[in-house]
Amino acid sequence: MPLHLADVARGVRETQYAVRGPIVARAAELERQGRRIIYCNIGNPQSLGQRPLTFLRQVLALAEWPALLDGPAASAFPEDARAAARRALTESPYGLGAYTESKGFRFVRDAVVEFIRRRDGIPADAEHVFLTDGASKGVQSVLRLLVDGPADGVMIPIPQYPLYSASITLLGGTQVPYYLDEAREWSLSREALETAHAQAVAKGIRVRAIAVINPGNPTGAVLDAANVEMLLDFARKHSLAVLADEVYQENVYRPQDRFVSFASVLVRRGIDDVPLFSFHSVSKGLFGECGHRGGYLESRNVHPEVMAEVEKLQSVALCANSAGQLVTWVMVNPPRPGDPSFPLYDRECKEIFESLRRRAARLQQGLSAIPGIQCNGLTGAMYAFPRIQLPPGRTDAQYCLALLEETGICVVPGSGFGQLPGTFHFRTTILPPDDEIELVIEKLSAFHASFTRA
Fold first, then answer.
1. Coil, helix or strand for 362?
2. Which terminus has fewer CB within 10 Å in the chain: N or C?
3. The overall pTM is greater than 0.85
4. Is the residue at 87 inside a domain?
5. Residue 246: what are its φ and ψ, rounded to 5°?
6. What is the DSSP letter of 339?
7. What local confidence, expressed as pLDDT, does residue 67 receive?
8. How many domains does the chain have?
9. Is the pLDDT at 122 greater than 60, yes or no?
10. Do 356 and 305 share a structural domain?
11. CA–CA distance, 162 with 159 (Å, rounded to integer)
12. Taking Cα atoms as reference points, which of 394, 401, 373 lies closest to residue 385?
């Protein structure tokens, strides 16, 4: 008997993931027909021209093919890259093709601990670090830990990254949205948090956790220390776990802003009764290594018996991929001043950062100049989430599909991320190269004028 849609689990059928939804499928179809498509739908830096960091790829090449270390080609690699590869091979005696322990290589987890110490000036525990296939797998594991049915709710920002809404739906839980304030640069308010929580409790929902994305996706907003402290106080009051998605911590573009980790505020405030799960990834920042699927989950204030359950979830998947673990190691343990590879590594990182900062400023300026489009400052992450004025009866999904068909620009409707009722948005990345950013702005301007006249 054939398998029909009705035979598929309801949670799967109800799950939506707009970043790779029907508009992206249509874009791929048009591309197969010979159309030129500018993919602005997903934060995939290397697909839009960002070059890999040389040192990372040298270490990967040597670790994946150890014969290079002893052959005539070895001299083509700087000594610190060779030393890093030797260390990786010593710590993984069976090579990168073998399973690792479920939590991931110990030497990489030790490096994550040292990275947190350097970044925040606080201690960490390698036993509370789990290496994951990107941050998404860590988020999904924690949600799997907390959500056991429709009575369990998780607070998520609106707009949010669809990983959260999709995962909660897949698990059969309940989304508890809290709205960010677009009029105040997508700021976070205690009033909005309390309102969202109270409404959920009134419906009989047991709110288990709150997710926060800092810097924000899709908003790009950067939380300051006061915001982080406020959210932790809120979580403490309502006995919530905190899921801190911090994958864009290097993508902060305004000089007056800086990334403040939730772990640093938790420790400095001496908060020992708020469970915190923090996530980082090699896919964003200055690495853009999306395909290598590397990242980590760090936990604090979590009971040992619960930690054992997290490890069990990791064990079900055996381990994170070993190459991604190695990329994570290089991310948290990069060349230092004085190392042979440092000058090139430092120059490449600065060039990538300056290019992202420049494109963020240009895209915000260009979008804001289009009548009928409002775009807040792009202060962090890799996206813009402009508000668009549409004729009565039109939707953002129709707008984005028409934009794709007419211009070849692929963006995602704001409805896929959540938005205040009665408003319309789309999300676009800042990742196209400079010349394509100009083309995107030019085509968007002409399209928007045409679409809103119709």
1. helix
2. N
3. yes
4. no
5. -120, 35
6. S
7. 86
8. 2
9. yes
10. no
11. 9
12. 373
Whether 90 maps to a domain, the answer reads no
Element (H, E) at 153: strand 152-158
Residue 445 contacts by C-beta under 8 Å, 6 or more apart in sequence?
Answer: 366, 369, 370
Distance between CA atoms of 266 and 14, rounded to whole angstroms? 36
Chain CA centroid to CA 159, Å:
14
Domain of residue 145, residue span: 106-332
Query: What is the model's pLDDT at position 5?
Result: 60
**Residue whose pair of structure tokens reads 């395909």 in the numeric block:** 291
Quick one: 361 and 249 in the same domain? no
With respect to residue 113, please indicate whether it lies within any of the assigned structural domains: yes
Instruction: Give yes or no for a contact between 177 and 420, defined as CB atoms under 8 angstroms apart.
Output: no
Q: Residue 97: what pLDDT?
A: 83
Q: Which CATH number goes with the domain that contains 410?
A: 3.90.1150.10
Distance CA 278, CA 135 (A): 9
Do residues 160 and 292 share a domain? yes
363-403: per-residue pLDDT in tens?
999 999 999 999 998 899 999 999 999 999 899 989 999 99
Angle at 143 between CA 141 and CA 146, to 5 degrees: 115
The H or E element that residue 443 is part of is helix 434-453
Cβ atoms of 88 and 329 closer than 8 Å: yes
The answer for residues whose C-beta is within 8 angstroms of residue 377's C-beta and 6 or more apart is 185, 220, 254, 364
Coil, helix or strand at residue 211: strand
Residue corresponding to tokens 């129709």: 398
Q: Are 308 and 145 in contact (CB under 8 A)?
A: no
Give the residue with greater pLDDT, 332 vs 430: 332
Q: What is the pLDDT of residue 322?
A: 86
DSSP-based three-state secondary structure for 385: coil
Q: pLDDT tens, 237-248?
A: 999 999 999 999
Closest CA to 212 of 256, 164, 257: 164
> Which residue intervals of 262-370 are DSSP H helices?
262-268, 304-316, 322-332, 342-368
Q: Read off the pLDDT of residues 300-314 as tens digits, 9 standing for 90 and up.
A: 999 888 888 888 888
Please give the C-alpha separations between residue 55 and each of 147, 180, 293, in angstroms, as whole numbers. Answer: 41, 39, 18
For residues 397 and 410, is the Cβ–Cβ distance under 8 A? Answer: no
CA distances (Å), origin 428, targets 266, 371, 438 = 33, 18, 14
Distance CA 262, CA 119 (A): 12
d(CA 411, CA 376): 17
Radius of gyration of the chain (CA): 22
